[in-house]
Design goal:
The complex is a heterodimer. Chain A contains 17 helices and 24 strands. By secondary structure, chain A is an alpha/beta fold. By secondary structure, chain B is mainly α. Chain B has one domain: ABC transporter involved in vitamin B12 uptake, BtuC (Orthogonal Bundle). Chain B is built from 14 helices and 4 strands. In chain B, the strands form 2 sheets. Chain B has a two-stranded antiparallel ribbon with strand order 1-4. A two-stranded antiparallel sheet of chain B has the order 2-3. The chains are: A alpha/beta, B mainly alpha. Chains A and B meet through helix 10, helix 11, helix 12, strand 20 and helix 13 of A and helix 1, helix 9 and helix 10 of B.
């Protein structure tokens, strides 16, 4: 296996390298984001790039797409040195990227977005009808079931990503970078995307595929490169490596250290919910006991998030019974839920979890300012020490206590979202997709954190679209479909296939 | 926990604002220095006291406005509120309504009107879901109209000398550089009276933290247990209350009540706030920023007068300054 590890940028096979990086280096002030990266991308290969959050993957994309000029090193495109100093130059060469966060215009139609900057015109006037017609043809060809005339904002994030892909396809991309494309996609959408990637590859397009989901890398890629702390630690042929090997390259840790199931004695019932109905879900009955992880698995849009938000008082339930530690309660708003002892770490960090431009300390202390105050005034010493304690306990890597959360890597941002509830003293923790877009090392840390909460006698509800995670960790696993629970399993009580089938409903 | 780090953490949301604040203070000083050299009339105890008096009202408006802007909103009605309340306090003082026509009664009644207007704005924004721009724009028109209806377009003269005398009064002072006595005008003390509690509210209480949180991400704030509605109400009430306070000072200063007064002051207040480092996108702002910003604007006006510049130039300079300051601010945020 070690012989496939390349030290020279030249391609291992006889195929022509399309893009070669030589001693590519990038610094942001004191931060050394990319360290002498030597890498060659062959024409028509799917090249996976994996690494923990903060390993330099995003920086690499930004250098390749001309967003950030490199500090030193060379980039060769078909053997010619290219400066890559602005995005126009990169697009002109044929380098395109589909980002995790969609960068399109939500108020325009799908077709208008596909043709943005390259509109079809008749005598200087936009021809909307022609664009919708052409756009629809393109989407149909690609196998995406999307309406070209619809407003972009009416689509899900996953569907918007497909639109971004179609747009790149139309611009004649020769080198296409996908950054975590499946994070928000359903299984069907993922399948359509994979089909497209394979077709692009057959047409000779070089694909760079960045993902935390290693099983996707193995399904899709020809070769995979591992970044760690800004340096390239290895490039492997996918056929000659395995998941454990990649993970150990990424983090210097083995896989069974990641899913560590804490066995905690199950205690009394904390929350019992009978036939709860509300916006987006119906007839849901769930019981959570001390020391227990209750997993909610299902496809995106199955009603899981709507259900937990209702329990947290965000959108109060219409009917049903909620019994909290033996007493029937009605939860009308978030503050009531918090006062009972419920904590919710929401699905989307950006939209629901964080005040991105404010400090780590403010974000962490937000739920507990009342307790840090004497009368109306905040005890500044306690505010600082409470923040410091959480930053230390959940190991948030931040330059300063007051540094804006936006300056943190994704994994550290997620630790802020979770960490802010640890001081609150909740009895029931609801984690909605706690590890989405988070690297393996951080995942392991988050799982350990769940374990320590259980040991303190808390109960946990965990929503996840990533089956291995709920499968390995949940004591009770509920499968959601169409807004309600369709099956319930005990720990590892059914096979992956069974659970998947139940979630999809075939 | 060392005192140093506690002190640092205090600026949490507005950390870099301190730097901008110092830069602005230097700019203000530089302007004063240049004017002192350029003219003989600027650096006199008389003119400087006058400058503090002139700047006081916009400063108070700007502080209140900043609370709304931090939540990501805007209050276009503060000038209209000042005009309307200056009329109201004059109307109350010139009628015979028992306690409400005494000075104390008229002032408290007018401040209550300010609170009520703030409640109304917040009701429109929070309960009816109107954009703050629209809600306060509508209120700006309507308030001037109500004022004109009540007075039938006439101006109310205030004959109460005890009331109007306050604007000319001063409290404490110190010897000036030329040996004359510098008496700190009462109007400037009123800025302090507003600024100190405003600073405490914004920087030292949890509601201040909530204001920033709402301005940054309303949904995240709500899911962290922040009572978004109540805090939004607070912001609009603070803004309207400050504007009503200014209305009273205005009536004292000019001795009349007229609902068309204070025209365009909302824009001066917003400009002061923006020059002072407040971000119109919300979640960035302070109390010292708009305070310095408003006195920079006043100095431009005052200096232009003394330099015998065409008064129209004042507006041009103000416009350029706004572009310049906000541009520097963008540079700063872009670097991050």
């Amino acid at each position: 296996m070690s012989e496939s590890l390349e030290s020279a940028p030249a391609a291992a096979s006889g195929r022509e390298p399309l893009l070669v990086l030589q001693k590519l280096d990038k610094r942001f002030g004191a931060t050394h984001a990319l360290k002498d990266v030597d890498l060659a991308f062959e024409e028509g290969e799917v090249h996976g790039i994996v690494g923990e959050n903060g390993a330099g993957k995003s920086t690499l994309i930004k250098v390749l797409t001309g967003v950030h000029p490199r500090t030193s090193g060379e980039v060769y495109w078909r053997g010619n040195s290219v400066p890559l100093v602005n995005p126009h130059e990169a697009i002109g060469l044929g380098i395109n990227a589909v980002h995790q966060e969609v960068v399109l215009c939500p108020h325009l139609t799908v077709a208008a977005n596909i043709f943005l900057g390259d509109e079809i015109t008749h005598g200087g006037m936009l021809s909307h009808r022609a664009m919708v017609r052409e756009g629809q043809k393109l989407l149909d060809d690609l196998g995406f079931k999307l309406p070209a005339g619809a407003l972009l904002s009416s689509l899900t994030i996953g569907q918007q990503q497909l639109v971004a892909t179609a747009r790149a396809e139309r611009r004649g991309a020769k080198f296409l970078i996908f950054d975590e494309p499946t994070a928000y996609l359903t299984r069907q959408e993922t399948a359509a995307l994979f089909k497209l990637i394979r077709r692009l590859k057959a047409n000779g397009v070089t694909i760079v595929y960045i993902s935390h989901r290693l099983e996707e890398v193995f399904e899709l890629c020809d070769r995979v490169s591992v970044l760690r702390d800004g340096a390239l630690v290895g490039t492997r042929r996918v056929a000659e490596t395995n998941e454990a090997d990649l993970i150990s390259l990424m983090i210097n840790r083995t896989i069974d250290q990641i899913y560590h199931k804490f066995s905690v004695p199950i205690g009394e019932t904390i929350l019992e919910i009978d036939n709860l109905c509300g916006p987006g879900f119906h007839d849901v009955s769930v019981k959570v006991r001390e020391g227990e992880i209750v997993g909610l698995y299902g496809l995106i849009g199955a009603g899981r998030s709507e259900f937990v938000q209702s329990v947290f008082g965000r959108r109060p339930a219409a009917s049903g019974r909620i019994v909290w530690r033996g007493k029937e309660v009605r939860i009308r708003n978030e503050r009531q839920a918090m006062d009972l002892g419920i904590a919710l770490s929401p699905e989307s960090r950006r939209d629901q979890g964080l005040c991105l431009h404010l400090g780590v300390d403010l974000n962490i202390n937000l739920p507990i300012f009342k307790r840090l105050s004497v009368g109306p005034f905040i005890n500044l010493g306690r505010e600082a020490s409470a923040a410091d304690r959480q930053i230390r306990d959940v190991q948030i890597k931040t330059a300063a206590r007051r540094a804006p959360v936006s300056s943190l890597s994704g994994g550290n941002q997620q630790k802020v979202v979770i960490g802010k509830w640890l001081n609150h003293g909740a009895k029931l923790f609801i984690f909605d997709e706690p590890t989405v877009g988070v690297d393996v090392g951080t995942k392991a840390e988050i799982y350990r954190l769940l374990g320590s909460l259980l040991q303190q006698g808390a109960g946990i509800v965990m929503i996840s679209s990533y089956l291995p995670e709920v499968y390995e960790l949940a004591d009770t696993l509920h499968v959601f479909r169409g807004g309600t629970i369709v099956a319930t399993h005990s720990l590892k009580g059914a096979s992956h296939e069974t659970i998947l089938t139940e979630a999809i409903g075939v | 926990m060392s005192d140093q780090s506690v002190l640092k953490s205090r600026r949490s949301g507005a950390g870099l604002n301190l730097l901008l604040g110092l830069t602005l203070l230097l700019l203000l000083m530089a302007m004063w220095f240049a004017l002192s050299i350029e003219t003989t009339t600027f650096w006199t105890s008389n003119n400087m006291a006058n400058l503090l008096r002139q700047g006081a009202m916009i400063a108070i408006l700007a502080i209140g406005e900043t609370f709304v802007i931090i939540t990501g909103g805007i209050d276009l009605s503060v000038g209209a509120i000042a005009g309307f309340t200056s009329m109201m306090v004059a109307w109350l003082l010139t009628h015979d309504l028992g306690f409400t026509s005494s000075i104390a009664g008229a002032i408290s009644c007018t401040l209550a009107i300010g609170i009520f207007i703030g409640l109304f704005h917040a009701f429109g924004v929070v309960q009816m879901g109107l954009p703050p721009f629209i809600m306060t724009l509508a209120s700006m028109y309507a308030l001037r109209g109500i004022g004109l209806l009540i007075t039938n377009g006439a101006t109310i003269s205030i004959t109460n000398d005890a009331f109007t005398g306050f604007s000319r009064a001063s409290f404490l002072g110190f010897p000036w550089t030329d040996g004359s006595w510098f008496a700190v005008p009462m109007l400037f003390w009123m800025v302090i009276v507003v600024a100190v509690p405003a600073y405490l509210l914004l920087s030292q209480t949890r509601w201040g933290r909530y204001l920033f949180a709402i301005g940054s991400n309303k949904e995240a704030a709500r899911l962290s247990g922040v009572n978004v509605k109540a805090v939004t109400y607070m912001a609009y009430i603070v803004s309207a209350f400050c504007a009503a306070f200014v209305g009273i000072l205005l009536a004292m200063r000019i001795g009349i009540g007229n609902p068309t007064q204070g025209d365009g002051w909302e824009l001066q207040a917003i400009a002061s706030s923006v020059i002072g480092g407040t971000s119109l996108f919300g979640a960035v702002g302070s109390v010292h920023g708009p305070l310095i910003g408003s006195f920079i604007l006043t100095t431009i006006n005052n200096g232009a007068n003394l330099l015998n510049l065409n008064p129209f130039w004042q507006r041009i300079i103000t416009g350029l300054l706004i572009i310049l300051v906000v541009y520097f601010d963008t540079l700063r945020t872009r670097k991050r």
